[in-house]
């Protein structure tokens, strides 16, 4: 049985007080309302991680993620944060290759392969983002494009390493636009990605990999998206900034 997961990517939102308040609300609501075996991840900005890690110390089902990390081990990289530093403050997951990082910070598939390696080397779990632009969607080669992102950033991993990776499919045209992928579009891509992984690593491993959907996911559309056979949860942006909406999404399974 593969793991179900709902992760909240706060992006560059909330000051520390607001972040701590949101975390406390999520802790209490998850405890009171969420049944079943869905895992919860929150990904606050870097400067919140140490304090939020303390709040989550006794929360077995809520994990902490960073939104990015350096591809370098340490050294003269002003402004960067290393995987080792993240591990030292209690982070569990690292989001790698979000489309906003690919677009605004020119992150390449090769660089994301290095980030994946360094994250795994520090005992952290990558949430690897992939997805196509509207232009590629309209051209029709979107499956090939996203499979290539996996190939170039993940397929150097051993089987044991790939098993630790969570994949998040986020069509760029659906992020922050209010325009969600239809269940058919989400299922088509998730199924294609699982098949592609099966081709390289075998069906057994492919069936075990958690693949999340992201892009304008909210309480009203999460139930139908999460009901798709190959969708194992969500990577939530805007709606994860409201504890009520985020927990309602978690309860959509
Ligand atoms: O980018 C996303 C999560 O990483 C999705 O963002 P929205 O849910 O705001 O569309």
Folded structure, characterized:
This protein has 253 residues and is of the alpha/beta class. The chain has a single domain, classed as Aldolase class I (TIM Barrel). It is 44% helix and 15% strand. It has helices at 16-33, 49-55, 83-88, 99-104, 109-121, 134-139, 142-154, 159-162, 183-201, 203-208, 222-226, 243-250; strands spanning 5-9, 39-43, 62-66, 93-96, 125-130, 166-169, 211-214, 233-236. An 8-stranded parallel beta barrel has the order 1-2-3-4-5-6-7-8, surrounded by 5 helices. β1 (5-9), α1 and β2 (39-43) form a beta-alpha-beta unit. The radius of gyration is 17 Å and the shape is globular. It starts with a strand and ends with a helix. The mean pLDDT is 97.
Q: What is the helix/strand order?
A: EHEHEHEHHEHHHEHHEHEH
Architecture, according to CATH? Alpha-Beta Barrel
Number of domains: 1
| Overall 3D form | globular
| Average pLDDT, all residues | 97
Question: What structural category arises from helix and sheet content?
Answer: alpha/beta
């Amino acid at each position: 049985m593969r793991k179900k997961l709902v992760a909240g990517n706060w992006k560059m939102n909330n000051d520390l007080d607001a972040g701590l308040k949101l975390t406390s609300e999520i802790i209490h609501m998850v405890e009171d309302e969420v049944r079943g075996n869905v895992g919860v991840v929150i990904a606050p900005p870097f400067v919140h991680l140490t304090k939020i890690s303390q709040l989550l110390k006794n929360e077995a089902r809520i994990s902490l993620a960073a939104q990015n990390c350096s591809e370098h081990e340490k050294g003269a990289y002003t402004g960067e944060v290393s995987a080792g530093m993240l591990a030292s403050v209690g982070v569990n997951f690292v989001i790698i290759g979000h489309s906003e990082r690919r677009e605004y910070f020119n992150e390449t598939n090769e660089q994301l392969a290095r980030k994946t390696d360094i994250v795994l080397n520090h005992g952290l779990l990558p949430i690897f983002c992939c997805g196509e632009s509207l232009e590629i969607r309209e051209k029709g080669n979107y499956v090939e494009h996203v499979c290539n992102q996996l190939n170039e950033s993940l397929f150097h991993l051993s089987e044991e390493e790939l098993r630790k990776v969570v994949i998040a499919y986020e069509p760029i045209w659906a992020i922050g636009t209010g325009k969600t992928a239809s269940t058919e579009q989400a299922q088509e891509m998730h199924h294609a990605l699982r098949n592609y992984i099966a081709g390289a690593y075998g069906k057994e491993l492919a069936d075990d990999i958690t693949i999340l959907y992201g892009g304008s996911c909210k309480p009203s559309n999460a139930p139908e998206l999460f009901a798709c056979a190959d969708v194992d949860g969500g990577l939530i942006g805007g709606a994860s900034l409201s504890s009520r909406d985020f927990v309602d999404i978690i309860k959509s399974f």
